Amino acid sequence: MLKEFQEFISRGNVMDLAVGVIIGAAFGKIVESLVNDIIMPIIGAIFGGLDFNNYFLPLSSAVNATSLAEAKRQGAVFAYGSFITVALNFIILAFIIFLMVKAVNDLRRRLEREKPIAPAAAPPADVALLTEIRDLLARK
């Protein structure tokens, strides 16, 4: 079983997937910081200077806090501001991945166009001989 596991892990696809997951997690943190620290403050300033993460509706009469963290401690809340932030985070991440895939596909197409076309292989000797005979008969 250990040998079978070693064979499974040593396949290229598994290692590529592991690298992709690690890079994806790191990239996700970068996008999360971009959204939370750069984009959402600008959007918040445009819409009245409030932080979207603190937009919520209390679902309990016991909740009277002004910040989401405090409101969650007091009771149930509908945190739609956090959802907006996460949705925007997803849209930005999906768009960046789309741009990366598009760039790779364009590069592949460009490399395919630049690839030299291989000359046609010479026909086998018997086909060449038959073609020569056909051409001689056609001239007579």
UniProtKB/TrEMBL annotation:
Residue stretches spanning the membrane: 12-31, 38-57, 77-101
Keyword Membrane appears in the UniProt entry: yes
Cellular compartment(s): Cell inner membrane; Cell membrane
Membrane topology: Multi-pass membrane protein
Domain of life (superkingdom): Bacteria
InterPro entries xrefs: Mechanosensitive_channel_CS (IPR019823), MS_channel (IPR001185), MSC/AndL (IPR037673), MscL_channel (IPR036019)
Signal peptide interval: none
Keyword tags: Cell inner membrane, Cell membrane, Ion channel, Ion transport, Membrane, Transmembrane, Transmembrane helix, Transport
GO cellular component terms attached to this protein's record: plasma membrane
Gene Ontology MF term list: mechanosensitive monoatomic ion channel activity
Keyword Cell inner membrane: yes
One Pfam match: MscL
Role according to the record: Channel that opens in response to stretch forces in the membrane lipid bilayer. May participate in the regulation of osmotic pressure changes within the cell.
Homology family: Belongs to the MscL family.
Quaternary structure, from the entry: Homopentamer.
Name the UniProt record assigns to this protein: Large-conductance mechanosensitive channel
